[in-house]
Specification:
Layout: H1 16-36, H2 42-47, H3 51-67
Amino acid sequence: MATNSESWIGVILKNEEEMLAVDEVIGAIDDFFEKYSEEMRDSEYIEKPEWENVVSAARKAYELIQEQPAATPSL
């Protein structure tokens, strides 16, 4: 999903708005790991102040996805 999130619209994402929200989460995670690497323990990650950017982006995406009406399957 990180390389082509648009292809997931209609599969697990309902629309472009959800896609952009998920892209924001991915970007926050990528920025975080670029700064701190992927070699720390989970407890070390969550102590970093930038972890709040990841949490905030994930929270916004979650809330948006929860607000979206369920997709109606076409027959």
